[in-house]
Structures are given as C-alpha cells and as structure tokens.
Amino acid sequence: MTTTFNHQHQQWKHFSLTHITYPTINNATLIEYITPPLLALLSLTPPFGVCALVTSVFFQKDVVAAYLLVGSLLTAAISSAIKRVLKHPRPPRYDDDGDVEYGMPSNHSCFAWFGATFLILYIVRRGGVWASSSLSSYSLRGSNDGSTPPSAAAISQSSSAWKLFSNVWHHLHTSIAIVLFIGIALGCAYSRVYLGYHTANQVTAGSILGCALGVLWYRMFELRLVRDSLVWLDGG
User: Which residue from 21, 77, 114, 159 could staple onto 210, CB 3.0 to 4.6 Å apart?
Assistant: First the structure.
C-alpha cells in the first residue's frame, strides 16, 4: 500500500536548530575568507556541546558531564522563558520567513557562557571539596590532589624535579583550557551578532545570564548533598 501526501498548498519552513548562514566576500583575503565559516561553526557551540556531554554520559558514564548537561538544559529553558516574557525582537535578516522570533537574551550566548563558567570553576577548584570524595567518574579520575597525576604521586615525593615539572604542566594545561573555554564562549557570542541573529545587547544579556547561572550551578555542585548524590550515582 502506497501513501502519498499532498503538500501543494502547504507552507514550508527550515528546521532552524542547526541552520546557519554566513556571508561570502568577493576577492576576500585569507582572514576574510575563513572568518565567516569559522564564526558559523562557533555559533553551533550549543548543539556540539550537548552532543559531547551526551557522549560522555552514555559512553564514559560520566556523572559530572550528566550534571553539566542537566544544568545546560535548565539554562536553555530559563533563557527561553525570559525571552518569551520580554518579547524583544531579533534584528531583521535577509532570510526572515515572516515568523516573529524573540532574541532577548541570546540562548546561544547563555549556553556558551554557562558551560565556560562552570568548566573554568571546575578545573580551577578541582582539588577543593571534591579531592576527598570517592567519586570514580571518568572526569575525576586522577585528581588525588588536583595537580599531581596519580601515576607520579610516589615519584613526586622523592623527586623535586618531577614535582616542579608536574606543577608547571598543571598550570600550563589549566591555563590553556581556561583560554580555550573563554575563546569559544566569546566566539559563539560574537558570531550571533556578526551573523545577524542577535543585537549586541541581546548577546550581552545572554552572556551575563549564562555566567551567573554557571556560578550558581557550580556552587550547588559543591554542596555536600549534591556531591553525595553524584557519588552514589557513580557507584561510589
């Protein structure tokens, strides 16, 4: 039995979850050539981030990633709710389909800065209250003291050279990670203005909201009740 559908008198619209357009420049320099598609990719930070977190949860059984995923989804819900209350229109674009869409605050900027804030606090304070927990999740393995790899713990006691190298390496990769997180969040936020999806004020509001929620979500992460719950979920 064959089923046919008559779409002749129906209106079609694109599925906007990952639909990103960017401008092309004639006779562009190398920088002008690579900047628009790079910003388009950075604009897709939220779906890429969710995919990474879901992968960590299901394949690495990472409860910290699960906690961050839940926070990211709540952040998106809060941002969307505020957007519907404020009803601040997006800036006009060439490809508008006539639907009224609101843009204050920017969900993408909010998501990016929420994740960046939480992850920066996590790697900076990793040796804090979590150092003594029994959480064996993938993201916390190897954090005996927050700075020294467990395989080198015995060596570091007798080798000042290794301890120095370990400390330098810890600060180096921590600094690189922080710069990377900030760069991605800045790039995502800027891309929304550059590509014409939001105004600067909408992106700024989303970024501030994301940072505030990131700090709040991390503070909850350090609560004993939350810590014990994650340890229990992790089988600790």
Answer: 114
22 torsion bin: left (phi>0), alpha (psi -120 to 50), beta (else): beta
The answer to whether the beta carbons of residues 192 and 201 sit under 8 Å apart is no
| 149 Cβ contact list (under 8 Å, min separation 6) | 142, 166
Backbone angles phi, psi at 76, to 5 degrees: -60, -40
Say how far apart CA 34 and CA 195 lie, in whole Å.
14
Q: Rounded to two decimals, what is the model's pTM?
A: 0.74
Question: Each residue of 30-84: pLDDT tens digit?
Answer: 887 788 888 888 888 888 888 999 998 888 888 888 899 999 999 999 999 999 8
Return the closest-CA partner of residue 86 out of 103, 108, 111.
Answer: 103
Residues 6+ apart with CB under 8 A from 146: 126, 127, 128, 131
Q: Which of 23, 187, 13 is nearest to 93 (CA)?
A: 23
What confidence tens digit (pLDDT) does each residue in 219-232 have?
998 888 888 888 88
